[in-house]
Amino acid sequence: MRDGTRMRIDLRSQTEWWAFYSGHYDDAAINLLRNLLSSVGGNFLDVGANIGMYGIRVVAGLANTHSLCFEPMPKNAARILENAALNDLEDRVQIQQVGLSDTEGPAQLVLREDFEMGSVTGNASIAISQVADGDFGL
């Protein structure tokens, strides 16, 4: 990315394709979050973290700041770990491989195999675990 973070991306995904070719992904929002965390401190919760475009980029370059990424999809969670390692953030990026919800228990996560938006019309699904409110150790 143009901000110096390194991300392994999948060019089949339109969102990731754009980030690869432009070098940008929600830069204004990420810079705002970085500025807030650098001035007031704290940690970052990335809910629905996908591959860590926010969770990794927000804490990169900020000392003593951690990111807790919630991502129930196993392949995406693995890529968060990989992207954290590419940026030497393994000790500051944690993953909870669950979905957050108002109820606990199993659920189906609907996916689209063509990498387009609109998972409500997906053609595949995986079983995930959901958790409700909790203390996640930050």
Short key terms for the protein model shown above:
single chain, globular, 3-stranded mixed beta sheet, Rossmann fold, 3-stranded parallel beta sheet, alpha/beta, 138 residues
- Which stretches of 5+ consecutive residues score pLDDT under 50? none
Radius of gyration: 15 Å
Number of strands: 6
- The dominant shape is globular
Q: H/E series, N to C?
A: HHEHEHEEEE
CATH class: Alpha Beta
Global mean pLDDT: 88
What gap, in angstroms, lies between the N and C termini? 27 Å
If helices are DSSP runs of H or I spanning 4 or more residues, what is the number of helices? Answer: 4
Strand ordering within the main sheet: 1-2-3
Percent helix range? 25-40%
Report strand %. Answer: 15-25%
**CATH fold annotation:** Rossmann fold
What class would the helix/strand composition place it in?
alpha/beta
CATH architectural arrangement: 3-Layer(aba) Sandwich
Main sheet: strands, sense, barrel: 3 strands, parallel
Instruction: Count structural domains.
Output: 1
